């Protein structure tokens, strides 16, 4: 079958998706629909439509016009808006769950309640609030060790953590009041101590194929300082483990994903077809769930799609046909390090409009993905969010980091990146932290 695959979205994640699809021996025709033109994706596509990706009719209309035989949806917003539902209704199968199934990401209480209802381990204490009734008692019970979350999608800005953003009870009460006044239900949950990792699985509704574990770095500055971001960089290890994780932690995370996929099928009466992304914390009491995402992580997917040896177009086809059990999913036995180059001032007050000069030729083992960029008067410019992602791969994390860092340093201008991601001292700190947490 000659596939025409529609990619929805235009960040570095979608550039990595397009790159992996373009490597397929099936040689699919690629088309993209998004709110912005990413020149990296454009170069791989035979058509590129610009419009609102959260408008199911607009996406479906473009898919029809391009005679797409399948769609791959990158970001969460179109999933929550029901774009997959509209595509399936138009007989265009989609990699990415329907609106009801995407609640695993769009509603944090849906995810927590699902674990409780189906007796899946991993939940910390949590309580959802529609009003401020009983709030003070719960906050007092978990004084100095709670997290407050907006129950809906808030682009990473709806979560405040004790010790980080909430320094006293007054801060917590104020944040809850603010959410309540704006009509946002919220969750108070126990703060878990440990190290975070992402475990993503391809899922066709019944079969899961797990990807290697990845660790992201959310803070903007070196040493894990500064504001939270969408993710400044990620790494994976050669054996597809992580230096601070026990095998049992990975097995537990895989089991939770497996059971969540089964619970979703039962709860929603429909198969979850896409990428199921568990955000976990390895803690003293085993693996705990931080959140679920209904899509590929960004930057996690940049590492993983670069390492993926199997045919990604065939994997996507098997997800929509529900034949993932028949398909092999292999990742190169290499380590990888990804770093985002971002504008000065990112994330709170980023510079916009600066020219981006790309390195001429990439060294062996390096890949580059464009993110928040645009082309004006033939010049590539940064539009204010994460700009370029560099992925290095190698026989060890050290090798992968060296390749990645060499390229990241070649990007001139008012940009910065975290040189410490994937370095020995940073990883040693994670391992040490986990030792302390486990022995507490
Ligand atoms: P989320 O949007 O749920 O991923 O939360 C954003 C960040 O808040 C996570 O990446 C964690 O660093 C932190 N966080 C969320 N929930 C918890 C929790 N229960 N315990 C500790 N940290 C948390
Ligand atoms: N890297 C975090 C995310 O994709 O949500």
Sum this structure up briefly.
The protein has 440 residues and is of the alpha+beta class. Helices cover 32% and strands 25% of the residues. It has helices spanning 12-22, 39-42, 56-65, 76-80, 83-89, 103-106, 108-117, 135-141, 169-181, 247-268, 300-307, 312-321, 397-408, 424-439, and strands at 4-8, 29-34, 47-50, 70-73, 94-95, 126-129, 146-150, 159-161, 186-190, 195-203, 208-210, 215-216, 219-221, 225-228, 233-236, 274-283, 286-293, 335-343, 366-370, 373-376, 379-382, 388-394, 415-416.
Number of strands: 23
Query: Could you tell me the strand content as a percent range?
Result: 25-35%
The proportion of residues forming helix, as a percent range, comes to: 25-40%
The total domain count is 3
Kindly provide the radius of gyration, computed on alpha-carbon positions and rounded to a whole number of angstroms: 21 Å
Structural class: alpha+beta
Mean pLDDT, nearest integer? Answer: 96
State the end-to-end CA separation.
Answer: 57 Å
The low-pLDDT segments are none
Shape field: globular
Total helical segments: 14
**What is the correct CATH architecture of the largest domain?**
2-Layer Sandwich
CATH class of the largest domain: Alpha Beta
Which ligands appear in the coordinates?
adenosine monophosphate, glycine
Please summarize the sheet with the most strands: 6 strands, antiparallel
CATH topology of the largest domain: D-amino Acid Aminotransferase, Chain A, domain 1
Look at the structure and name the CATH superfamily of the largest domain: ATP-grasp fold, B domain
């Amino acid at each position: 079958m000659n596939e025409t695959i529609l990619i929805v979205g235009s960040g570095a994640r979608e550039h990595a998706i397009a790159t992996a699809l373009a490597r397929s021996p099936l040689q699919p025709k690629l088309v993209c629909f998004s709110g912005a033109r990413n020149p990296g994706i454009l170069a791989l596509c035979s058509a590129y439509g610009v419009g609102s990706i959260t408008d199911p009719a607009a996406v479906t209309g473009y898919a029809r016009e391009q005679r797409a035989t399948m769609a791959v949806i990158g970001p969460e917003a179109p999933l929550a808006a029901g774009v997959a539902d509209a595509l399936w209704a138009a007989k265009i199968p989609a990699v990415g769950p329907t609106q009801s199934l995407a609640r695993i990401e769009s509603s944090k209480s849906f995810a927590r309640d699902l674990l409780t209802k189906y007796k899946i381990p991993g939940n910390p204490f949590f309580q959802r609030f529609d009003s401020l009734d009983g709030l003070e008692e719960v906050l007092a019970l978990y004084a100095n060790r709670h997290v407050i979350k907006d129950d809906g999608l808030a682009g990473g800005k709806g979560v405040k953590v004790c010790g980080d953003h909430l320094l006293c009870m007054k801060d917590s009460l104020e944040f809850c009041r603010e959410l309540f006044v704006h009509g946002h239900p919220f969750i108070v949950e126990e703060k878990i101590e440990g190290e975070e990792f992402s475990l993503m699985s391809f899922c066709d509704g019944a079969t899961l194929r797990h990807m290697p574990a990845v660790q992201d770095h959310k803070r903007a500055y070196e040493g894990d300082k500064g504001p939270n971001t969408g993710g400044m960089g990620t790494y994976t290890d050669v054996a597809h483990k992580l230096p601070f994780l026990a095998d049992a932690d990975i097995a537990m995370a895989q089991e939770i994903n497996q059971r969540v996929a089964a619970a979703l099928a039962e709860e929603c009466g429909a198969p979850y077809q896409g990428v199921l992304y568990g955000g976990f914390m390895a803690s003293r009491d085993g693996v705990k769930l931080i959140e679920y995402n209904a899509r590929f992580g960004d930057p996690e997917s940049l590492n993983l799609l670069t390492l993926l040896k199997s045919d990604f177009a065939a994997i996507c086809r098997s997800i929509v046909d529900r034949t993932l059990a028949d398909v092999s999913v292999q990742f190169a036995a290499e380590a990888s390090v990804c770093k985002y180059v971002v504008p000065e001032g990112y994330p709170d007050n980023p510079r916009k409009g600066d020219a981006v000069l790309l390195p001429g030729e990439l060294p062996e083992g390096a890949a580059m993905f464009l993110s928040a960029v645009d082309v004006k008067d033939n010049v590539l410019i940064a539009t204010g969010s994460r700009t370029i992602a560099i992925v290095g791969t190698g026989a060890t994390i050290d090798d992968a980091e060296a390749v990645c860092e060499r390229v990241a340093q070649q990007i001139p201008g008012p940009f910065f990146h975290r040189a410490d991601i994937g370095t020995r001292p940073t990883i040693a700190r994670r391992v040490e932290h986990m030792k302390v947490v486990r022995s507490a």
